[in-house]
Every structure is written in structure tokens, then in C-alpha cells.
Design goal:
Three copies of one chain form a homotrimer.
Chain A lengths: L2 H6 L3 H15 L9 H11 L5 E6 L3 E2 L2 E2 L3 E10 L5 E4 L14 E6 H4 L3 E2 L21 E2 L2 H6 L4 E11 L2 E9 L6 E7 L6 H18 L7 E7 L3 H9 L1 H4 L2 E7 L8 E4 L7 H11 L5 E4 L8 H4 L8 E5 L21 H20 L2 E4 L24 H12 L1 E5 H8 L3 H13 L3 E3 L3
Parallel strand pairs in A: 7-8, 11-12, 11-13, 13-16, 14-15
Antiparallel strand pairs in A: 1-10, 2-3, 4-5, 4-9, 6-9, 10-12, 14-16, 17-18, 17-19
Chain lengths: 437, 437, 437
């Protein structure tokens, strides 16, 4: 039974709830591009799937970059002249500018102000800020909080370390019949942000779990990595593996209420690009296909010109385009169980399409074979409008070694699953055989 | 004088009437995919054109198929308990399911009912049904007839033979200067159906007659064959000829009142595809171009992947899309003399385009030749708006060995005939010469 | 500083006024395809730019043509029976059919009429007529003038010579770093016509002056030639130079009030075609791109199939489509200083684009280089919306040796100048290098 057909028998709303619970468990952890937040996150993922955890030393060269110092934070606050906590890391880990260097000092408000960040247009939201490659410190708070601050001396404390250590990432490899690989990549470097990071890693985890132990054509490699530096590190240290990647998908922002956006790979017409367009058009959710651009998530690295990998990016809302992006409003209420479930279903459908998409060779290429005497000129089951027969005729007609099932679905305008069903039936009947790679 | 120009001097409405009379003569014959109905039909055609009649024995293997037994029918009826004929083959040959095995029995109505076919939505029409490859018997009648049948024992009689014999088809070959061929194919296997079979074979017959004895560039091969099995048989037995086919056209349903539909070959950009689009756009009738699909008429076989011949299909109404299709309403009133005449004219225009479409080589490719001193920089005859001169400039500019006249017509947006006239005039003046094949 | 940026510091309306004055100085001269009118015109141009003047003898063969006799005119008139001048060459040089053979005779009006040309629909305008290759004589006058003529004997006089002599043209060559050439061509064979001939030659002259003495990548060749025969002559006598032409532009009708029309080269996708589309879309004036056609100006010759040069044609109004075309209404009022200035600016922008358009090679093709530590991940200057950074990412991502900056601008949808600025900045930083030709 195909991955997708089996999925129909699964309770998707139950999966949606589980995905949401899984994300909720990871939500409070203060992640960054290095440090214990990532380790804790990977440990939770490891309980679900066979995950290899890699540690790469500070200072290691990865292409044009170097692994930065490891950042760990225990606590942080700003205490008002009256002793009240006005900003408290324990309340929300977004309060500290991610990668802030340690500080403990009492300073007049005027000297602190340049280190405070708010969103005047959304005065109740805390912004998310980082300072990875520029040693500095800072706090994020709501604009309304900031407006209440009166002059005076404030105690600022960031109890953090920024020292030589490691960059940590997780990798889950599921071996298939072929060493050709499908890459699924998500970033795990954001602290309490739900859509932007948790939604992607949750769906990736559940997808790996769903595929684990199956007889698959492709091998599947899941990367749970810090954004940018993580992808660069993995690419730098896995040049041979890279050459086996046939398709790839970056998953991010797949939990909000909107329809799908798929950003094509740099190639624009890779199998993954066409497969996503083909199968997601058949699902019930809206789909918008975006051209590649060199900004976004780690497809930036996978699609850099030296690699030019066939890797696209599946999102619901597009990063940077929704007001909650990189704020405290990207919380567990912003992602919905049914959206997570729908994204999981979409990923299974995409994998199913990659698994099923092959070239077949018509064994009777001269004229049509006599379908009637093989009982293939009648519809099977409920469908009786001729679509099944037409799908068989399309597959026979175009299976000349040039066309994959995706090509046939595109040219015929028929659904990919109908074309696959036809091909598999004709294959069983001996009228087709799979074209060797 | 070109084929098309000569045609302008012919009385097209007279040709339309003759085509209709010719079809009317063939209408009563009970044709099938084998048997005497086909032989009688071919004999009538043979009175108009030099036709070679082929007989292929039952049991002969043709690719994945075998020539079936030959079917011949003399009479058939259903007699009511009161002795009245309720269904009578002599009234209409559609009453018998085509290829019914013989039967003579008296049976209660309840046992006959599974063998009766009607069209409830069109209660006064008789459906057309076949059972070629599944031995069975049956009758077709109007739904209103069926509603009058009362319980009781009925005498059913089908006086037919289904025995080893032959499959019969006709072939007319008109040799041209080149052994490259244009194939014109039509099916002749339907009994009293006018648009679906008679219109095509009538137009094909008249076209062959019109081309016969002319000095033509291409050789022309006309096939009058039973659908599917006839095309498969011819392809199986003429593999060497197949390789000489440069263009082809299946003709069917070219007699009804609607505008033209042209279904492109599997290649989609074959010369025939572009020629039909180009010349039929210039005629006064509506034209819709359809993409190839692997269902329809014998283009299914010609365009099977092992052959992939450049063969399209010219229709007015598309098979299966009009209510009269495969019913007694597809009768001689359903096809019109003016439609048949217009289809004949379209076919002549298509042949004319194939004959005229060539590549020429500009003999003065560096800068324009001085048209003025050759008196070619003035319009000839009535046209004075510069279009003739522009056509000459286009032909000169693009006749670099890459572009055929069709290419030039397409790129310039000018009419194909204007471009051809220009090329032929420039050729006479020595400014062009025909590019060797 | 780039050509275009420098232009921003120049007073364009001042240049527009100078262009108009320059054209006004040339307006009264009676030019033709040969003769002293052309020589006087070239002498005026020569005062502005280093111009080489060529003389080619009558009778010289140039491809399919021969250099015609040289035509010079001193005076011409028609005198009425009462001794009044009814047509006087001294008033307007359009009054004489260009290339009229000499005549001096007294003739009845009825014999003169076949030699008189007017525009009945524009009764106050004098038409412009020529008879280069058909020896004849004639006069052009307003329709209203003609209506006043009464029967009687008129004295007609054309004091002209049509004798062996020369065809004259001018050539200005500006050597660049590469011997690859950009050709700028304009016709200089029309008498008192402003938009059609003076506008183009004025802009070409000023452009040559602007480029003169600069350090340029391409070499630039400006041709000031009689239409058709001049281009044919130059092409016939410069076959080796022709092979070095990488881009070219015919300039004509660039002075009227309308937006730009650019007619593409025969190739349709040459660098010049794409550069013009790209940079003129960024200017404030309307732009319409026209497909190539083999009628028009000297692109007809440059784009003849033997040459097929990448030469397009920049116009404002398209020849033949405006009522003033080839009439006395195409006078100095019909061309506007601001239009001439805008056309000059457009030409500089096009040259600037050709100069800047190169392929670069990303020196860190594997993953993104770390822009942050090079201070390239922040916008420079006033722009702070990220467009500058995005432009850098686009240039880095696509600089794989396949894509020129034009390709990158087209794919990214960003402005060409933004892409160029990004490339030049990245080049300075060592992240790119120019791809060798």
C-alpha cells in the first residue's frame, strides 16, 4: 500500500494534535545556533526517531565561515531602581537578545536604552533579536513595558557564557533501496517561536517516524540544524553525501492557518519542484508556487551556485510577510493542530510522489496493446467515467523512455495518483516495465 | 496553378451535393470491422478512384492483436407473442448489436431484456452498439419501443455468421515526385452512421479523386479501413512504408454543421499540425486546435510511441461530444452538403500547404537585393497596400536555410498563401532557389 | 564614475536645447543620397566629433547594387503664365522631387500635372518624394497651392546635375579596450525633415562626443550614411569590421513628443535587445518593444540573413505611422528639445548597460560567503529596505559563469543598475571576479 493511501486510514486530526503537543513540549526551551537549548531539543526529537547528534568544535572552518563560540544562558533580567523586575528572562526567553555577551552592571536608563528593542506598532509583543556575529548585549521587551520605564539606575544582568565549545545538530538517515537521497531540512535555532522553527521540526520529526522502517526507493536524510551556519557546516563536512541528493525540501512556518507556499529550487524545474506543484494542487488547500530567490531559509545554502541542489522550501505563511514573524506572537496559539496535520499530510504526499515517480517502458510500443482481453478496458471499482481507462492509455502512449509519470500527469492534465495507479496496474499486467535508472 | 487556386474556380456547393449523394448511397449498407458490408463499400469507392482491396486472413497476428473471425449478417428480428415484428433489422441495421453471434430462440421477455439496449434520455433514437471481441448477441431499439413490450415469449432471430474469413480494407496510392508520403486515413466500419464514418470516407474519396493524375511533390496514400484493427493491421504489414510518412491526417465527423476541430499529432509541432493551424485559420470557418490525447480515432495507433507518426485528426464536431454520436440520429440529415464541401475545401487547402511549404535559399543574402530594378518593389495586380512587397521582404530575410514558408508565415503573421506567392515569384526571378531536401 | 551616473550631473534640458540648435543648423540643407548636401552636413558634424569622410565612386558595385550618379541641385521653380513663382525651391527644398533630372521648359499645365505631387488630406503640407533609381522629374507642393493653378503655359526649371561623382558618408570610430564593436547608425539623406533624419544624426553626434576620449570596454563606430545604399556600401566595403560588431543601434525619429519604440534585431534576443528593454523600462518614459520586421531603416541591411547582426532600432514615433512623416510638417517644431535630450539620455543608458553588462564568477560558490564580517550585510547610504543586500545575494547566487548581469536583472526582477552596483561592490571586495571573455 502506498504511503498516501495508508495515510487515508490514519486519523489526521489526531496526528495534528500530537504534532501540536510535541511542539508545545519544545516551546519553552531557549534555543540558539549553539548551546544546550539545541541539545535539549535534539534529545526530545531523539525519543521519536533514530537521531545521530553531531558536535562540531568552535573555530572549525566551514567554507567562508568559522564555527562561533558556544552560547549558553542561565538567567537575565533588568531590575528597576525600586527593585522590581521590569524584564525577566524566566518569563520569556525572547527578552534577551540571542547571543548576548554576559553583563552585570547598574546603569542609568539612558545608557541602557540603546540596548532595548521594542515594536512600537505592536506595543504588546516582544521582538526576537539576535547578535550572532557581533558581540553585544541587549534586551527585547514590549513597547508598553518600555513606556513605563522612568529615569534612574537599573540593574542589568545577563548570566550567559560565550566560550569555545561546539555547534550541535541532529541527523536522521533512513536507508532506502537506492543510495540516492531525499533531504529534509529544518532549522532548530529559534527560542520560543512556534511557527518559525517548531512547526517545521515537528513535521520533519513525525515524517521521519512515519517513513522509518519502511521499504523505500530513496534514502531519506533529515537534518535538524541551526539556520545558516548549520547548513553550511553540514554541507562543508558532507561533500560526498551531497552528490547523492536527488531532491530536497526545507520545512518552515508550516503551522499557521494559511494555505501552502512552495518556493522552487534554484533550478526551477527539478523533480521536487514539479512533484510538489503536482501533488499539492490535488490537495484541498490553497497552493501558491513562488520562484526561487536567494533569501529565505537554508535553501540559500543548498541552492548556492557551487551546489545548486534541487531543494525547495515548503511553507504556509512566508517568512517575513506575517506580522507575528520574529515576535512573541509567533506562539503556540499561532500554530494550529489541523494546519500541522495538513502539512504532515502534504509532506507524505510529496514523498509518495517522489517514491512513485518513475519512467516506465511500454512493452508493446507499436499500436495499442489489446487491453480488452486483459480486462483492462473497463474501469475498476466505482469509477466508471472512463478516466481510469484514459489514464492507462496516456501512460501507454507516453511511456517511451522519455517521460516520467510526472511528465505524463502534467501533459495529460490528469491527477498524478490516477496516472500512478494506471502505471502500476499496467506494470503488473506486464504491459510496462520500470526503466532502469 | 496551385490546387487551392484551381479550387476557387470549382463549384463548391456542387461538390457538397455530390459528396452528400455519395454518402447517401453508402448509408444503407451494414458495415462492420469485417465482412461483406465493407466489401460493398469499397466497391462503391473503387468506382471513383484507383483502389487496391486487401484481404487479411482471420487469425493473422498483427502486433498484440489477431484478425478476428469475419462477421456477416443477413437478417435479424424480434417477434412479439402476437406475431408482430417489434424489432426488424430490415428497417434499420443499428437494431442488431454489431458482431452479434447467431441466435434463433423463443424466450420470455425477462431473458431477452439483458440483451436489449436503449437510450432513455433520447427515447426515439436507436443506439449503436458493438461486441467485437466478446462473443454475445443483442438488439438496439428506441426506448419508446421498449416501453411497449409486454411480458410473454418472444422469438429472437439473428441470422448471422461469425466464421474464419478475412479482414478487408482499401488502399489508394497516388505517386508523387518524392517517395515521401502523406497519409489520409478514414474508418469504414460503422453501419448506418453518417457523420461518424461516411463523412470522412466520402471526403477522402473525393480528395483522392481530385489529386489523382496530378503532378504532386508528395506521394499520397489513402486508407479506407476498419477502425483500430484496420489501422493496426496496416501498420503491422507495412513497416517500410511507415518510414516514408511525413504527414498524415485522420478524417472523421467532417459532415455536421459545426466548425472545425483539429487534434494535433502526438509530436504537437509536426508540419501537419502547423500547416493545418495556418491554413484553416485563413478560411472562413471557426477552427479550434486540440492537443493530442491517446483516445479518439486511428491517430491512436499512428501516434503510438513506437511509431509516433506526424498524424493529426480533422473533425468538425468531436466524437463523443454530440448527442447524435453513435445513435440513429447520426443520419443523412445530420450531415450537410455545405459542410461536406467545406471539409473537402479544407483538405485541399491543407494538401496545397504541404505541397507548397518548402525552404528556399536567398541567393543574395548580404543586404537586400535591388527589387526596384526587377520591378518587384511595386505591388502586382490589385493589391496596393504594400503587403505583397512586405511578404517578399519577409521571404528574402528569412530564407536562410533554417526557415520554411510556414515558419515565415508564422513569424511574419502574414497569410501563408501571400508568403507562398511571394516565394514563388522571387524564385522565378532567380532571387531564391529551393533548398534541396 | 559610470556613464549614466555622470549624466545625472549634467543639465539634460541644456543638452536638449543644444541638440535642437544643432538640428536647426542642418535643417535648411538640401540633402540627398549623394551630393553636396551630405558633404555640408558631414562638415557640420565634423566640427563636433572626429569624423572620417568617405567618397565612393559612381558605378562601384556594392553587392546587388551600384553606386548611382551624384545629384546636385542649385535651383528649381515653376513660374505661372503671369510670371509669378508658384513653386520655389528657395522657399523649401521639399518642393523638388529629390533626384529629379534637370529640366527647363515651358509646358501647358496639363503636361505638368503628372509631375506634381500633393497631399489632398493635408492641403497645407508639402509631401517629400524621391526618384532615386528611376530618372524622372517632379515637384511637390501643397494641395491648396495646386488648387489655385489655372490652365496656361508654365515655365518649369530644375537646375540640377545628375552625373558621375561619388556617394559620401561619415564614420567616427572610438577605440575601446576591446576590438569588439558597438555600431551606431543613422541616415543623413533627407532634406528638410527634422524627426526623420536630423533627430537621429544629432543624437548620434552628441553621443559620439560624450563617449569620445573615455576609457571604454567596447569600441564604438558611428555611421552617418545615406539610407539603404549607404548601409549597403559600408557593409560591402567593411566585411572584416562587420565580424567585430557585437551590438548595434539604428537611431531615427527620436525627436518627437512620443514615448520610445524599440524594434528588436532579427535575432530577437541579442544583448542589445535585452539591454534596451531592461534599461529603458527603468526610465520614466513609455517604452514599447516591437518585433523585428524586414522593413524600416538600415536594420534591414544589418539584419539581412547573410549578416544577421545584432542591431535594433530606437525610435520615438515609428516611421510611416505619424501623419507628419515624409511631409513638410516634420519640421523643427515637430521635434522638441526635451525629447531629444531624453533620447540622448536613453542612448547613454544603453551604452552604459552594454559597458557594465558582464559575467562575473562567484569566488565562494559553496554556500554564501559571510557578508557580515565584510560589512556587506548592511545597506549602504540611504537605502535601507534590504534591496541592496538582496541584489548582492542575487549576484552571488547567479554568478556561476552562465549568467550575465542582464540575466541576473531579468531573473531577479531588480533594476539593472542596482544589480550592477552590487556586482561592482562585490568585485571590489574580492567576492567576485570578472569572467574572461
Amino acid at each position: 500500500m502506498g504511503l498516501l493511501k495508508e495515510l487515508c486510514t490514519i486519523n489526521l486530526s489526531e496526528i495534528g494534535r500530537e504534532l501540536h503537543l510535541f511542539a508545545a513540549k519544545l516551546y519553552p526551551i531557549c534555543r540558539s545556533i549553539t548551546g544546550d537549548g539545541i541539545r535539549k531539543t535534539l534529545n526530545v526529537i531523539q525519543r521519536k526517531i533514530p537521531l545521530q547528534i553531531h558536535e562540531v568544535q568552535t573555530g572549525t572552518s566551514v567554507f567562508d565561515w568559522k564555527i562561533p563560540k558556544e552560547w549558553n544562558i542561565r538567567n537575565a533580567y533588568i531590575k528597576a531602581p525600586d527593585g522590581q523586575f521590569v524584564v525577566d528572562f524566566q518569563q520569556c526567553n525572547l527578552h534577551v537578545v540571542n547571543y548576548s555577551k554576559p553583563i552585570h552592571a547598574t546603569l542609568p536608563l539612558s545608557e541602557i536604552r540603546p540596548h532595548l528593542f521594542t515594536i512600537p506598532d505592536e506595543p504588546d509583543w516582544i521582538p526576537y533579536r539576535t547578535s550572532y556575529y557581533n558581540e553585544d548585549w541587549g534586551f527585547c521587551l514590549t513597547h508598553n513595558q518600555m513606556l513605563t520605564l522612568e529615569d534612574g539606575d537599573y540593574e542589568v544582568s545577563i548570566d550567559a557564557t560565550l566560550e569555545d565549545g561546539h555547534l550541535t545538530y541532529g541527523e536522521c538517515y533512513l536507508a532506502g533501496r537506492s543510495s540516492d537521497e531525499v533531504l529534509i531540512s529544518c532549522h532548530i535555532c529559534h527560542p520560543s517561536l512556534a511557527n518559525d522553527n517548531l512547526s517545521g521540526l515537528a513535521v520533519a520529526t513525525f515524517l521521519a517516524q512515519h517513513l522509518s522502517g519502511r521499504d523505500l526507493r530513496y534514502s531519506y536524510r533529515f537534518l535538524f540544524i541551526p539556520g545558516t551556519i548549520g547548513a553550511i557546516t553540514w554541507l562543508a563536512q558532507n561533500k560526498e553525501t551531497v552528490e547523492r541528493i536527488r531532491n530536497g525540501l526545507v520545512l518552515s512556518c508550516v503551522g499557521d492557518a494559511k494555505g501552502f507556499h512552495y518556493k522552487k529550487s534554484r533550478r526551477g524545474d527539478a523533480e521536487i519542484d514539479r512533484a510538489v506543484a503536482c501533488v499539492l494542487r490535488e490537495c484541498n488547500e490553497p497552493l501558491e508556487i513562488l520562484d526561487f530567490s536567494p533569501y529565505g531559509y537554508d535553501e540559500r545554502q543548498y541552492c548556492s551556485p557551487g551546489f545548486n541542489l534541487p531543494v525547495g522550501c515548503l511553507m504556509r505563511s512566508v517568512w517575513g510577510t506575517f506580522p507575528e514573524y520574529h515576535t512573541s506572537a509567533d506562539n503556540m496559539d499561532f500554530i494550529l493542530p489541523e494546519s500541522l496535520g495538513g502539512s504532515f499530510q502534504a509532506c507524505v504526499a510529496i514523498v509518495d510522489a517522489l517514491e512513485r515517480n518513475q519512467k516506465y517502458i511500454n512493452q508493446n510500443p507499436f499500436c495499442e496493446p489489446q487491453l480488452g482481453r486483459r480486462n483492462l478496458y473497463k474501469a475498476t471499482g466505482v469509477e466508471s467515467d472512463g478516466r481510469e481507462i484514459n489514464a492507462r492509455l496516456w501512460v501507454l502512449n507516453l511511456s517511451d523512455g522519455e517521460n516520467s509519470l510526472l511528465d505524463i500527469a502534467e501533459r495529460s492534465g490528469m491527477s498524478f495518483s490516477l496516472i500512478c495507479d494506471a502505471a502500476e496496474l499496467l506494470n503488473q499486467s506486464g504491459l510496462l516495465r520500470v526503466m532502469p535508472a
